[in-house]
Amino acid sequence: MKSLGIVVSNPDDWTARAISRGLTELGASAVMMDISELAVEIGVDLSFRKGGVDLLDLDTLIIRDMGRGAPQDVAFRFEALRSLADLGVTVINPPDAIVRAANKFATSMALRRAGVPTPRTVVTSSYDVALKTVERMGRAVCKPLFGYKGRDIALLRQGDADLIKDLLIRRGALYLQEFVETPEKRDIRAFVVGEEVAGAIYRVAPPGEWISNLARGGRAERCEISDEIERIAVDANRAVGTVYSGVDMLESDDGMMVIEVNGTPSGKGIFSALGVNVGRMIAGLALGVPMR
Q: How do residues 256-275 score in pLDDT, each as one tens digit?
C-alpha cells in the first residue's frame, strides 16, 4: 500500500479531512502535515523532514494548501516540492501547476495557448496603459496577481484615475480583466477531478454585491453540468496542468468564459450544495481507484 501525506496548514480543513477519510475507506492512510517548518538537509545524505517524517519516504503527497508566508519562505516550499517530484514522489497537484494557477497572468496565458475562452485581459505596470485599458473596456475587474478567496478585487470604471494610480503604486502591476455582464450576479464553480467534472455550483453574490465567492458571502446553488461546462472546465484543468481544480466560469452572450483556475480548491461548497464528496474522489485518484 502506498505511503501518503496531505499538505495542509489547518488540520481541521474540511477538504483535507474528506481526502483523509476517503483514503481510510480505501484501506490507506495519510499523515497530515504543515510544511511551513520543513527542513531540507543537503549533503552526503539528503532529507526533507517535517517533524519525524522524511517526505522522501512517501510515495504520494496531496497538496491541499501551501500555507501563507513571506515570499522567500513560499518560494522555498515550492522548490522543495519540485525537488521531491524530481526525486520520484508523486505530488498532486504538481508544483508547477499550483504556481501556474496561483499566478493569474500565467493562468491567462495557459488558457490562451489552449484555446480556452476567457475575457479580454491586460496586465501592465504602466499607469497610462492601465488608464486607457479601463477607458476602452468601460469596466474592468482588477485582481491581485496572487489573490485568493475574492480578496482585494476592485471594479474599475472610467474616471477612476486616482484609484488606478493608487492600486499601481501598491501592487506594482495591474491585472485587468474585462467585466463580463451576466444574466444574474453569479458565476459557476466547476470542480474537476482527473478528466471529469465532479460537480458544479452557481456562486450567487449577496444582495447589492457583485463578488460571488463563498468566502465573501456568496451562496451556493446547484448547477446542472452541460456539455459546454464539462468540456471547457476539463480543457481549463488540462491547460493549467492540474490534476484536480476549481474552474470558475461566467455565462456570457458568447458562451462560457473561464475567469480563474484554483489549484488548491475547497470541496466544502460542492458537498454542501450537491452532496458530492470530492475528497473521496481525490483520494481515489491518488490511489488509482476510480470513485464517485
A: 999 999 999 999 989 999 99
Residue 172 backbone dihedrals phi, psi, to 5 degrees:
85, -35
Query: Is the separation of the CB atoms in 21 and 5 below 8 Å?
Result: no
Q: Which amino acid is at 226?
A: S
pTM summary value: 0.91
Distance CA 42, CA 44 (A): 7
| Alpha-carbon distance values, 181 to 75, 119, 120, 170, 171 (Å) | 37, 11, 13, 28, 26
Distances (CA, A) of 101 to 78, 247, 289: 13, 10, 26
Of residues 113, 156, 116, 115, the one with CA closest to residue 138: 156
Whose CA is closest to 52, among 31, 80, 69, 67? 31
pLDDT band at 254 (very low <50, low <70, confident <90, very high): confident
Amino acid making up residue 85 = A
For residues 239 and 118, is the Cβ–Cβ distance under 8 A? no
The 10 Å Cβ neighbour count of residue 85 is 15
Place of cell 481541521: 12
Number of Cβ within 10 Å of residue 258's Cβ equals 26
Three-class DSSP labels, 110-133: HHHHHCCCCCCEEEECCHHHHHHH
Strand order in the sheet with 139-143: 121-124, 174-178, 139-143, 154-157
